[in-house]
């Protein structure tokens, strides 16, 4: 993961998460019949953020494979991008909420 292409792509990983998660949240919330869409979306992004953290830990740190990262590589060296990705997932309900009044 020291590839120059990967290193240059890091800032864009946050950007595509800012686009992808709100789109999926909007599509997902349209199919749910609820009285309070904003609370539903908040609960959904809390679950998505928690699941993302768990899946990232399992797939990038815990499970042995060719591209495995150490705790330091994933949680320290990958800053600020990993934190910004989780923030992007969490704020997706605000982005969608801005468009759904």
Automatic annotation (TrEMBL):
It comes from the Bacteria. The keyword Membrane applies. The chain crosses the membrane at residues 12-28, 40-60, 80-100. Keywords: Membrane, Transmembrane, Transmembrane helix. This is Uncharacterized protein. It comes from Bacillus cereus.
């Amino acid at each position: 993961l020291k590839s120059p292409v990967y290193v240059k792509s890091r800032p864009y990983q946050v950007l595509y998460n800012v686009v992808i998660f709100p789109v999926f949240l909007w599509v997902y919330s349209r199919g749910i019949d609820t009285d309070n869409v904003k609370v539903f979306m908040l609960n959904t992004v809390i679950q998505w953020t928690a699941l993302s953290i768990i899946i990232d830990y399992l797939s990038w740190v815990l499970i042995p494979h060719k591209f495995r990262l150490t705790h330091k590589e994933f949680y320290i060296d990958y800053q600020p991008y990993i934190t910004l990705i989780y923030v992007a997932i969490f704020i997706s309900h605000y982005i969608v909420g801005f468009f759904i009044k």
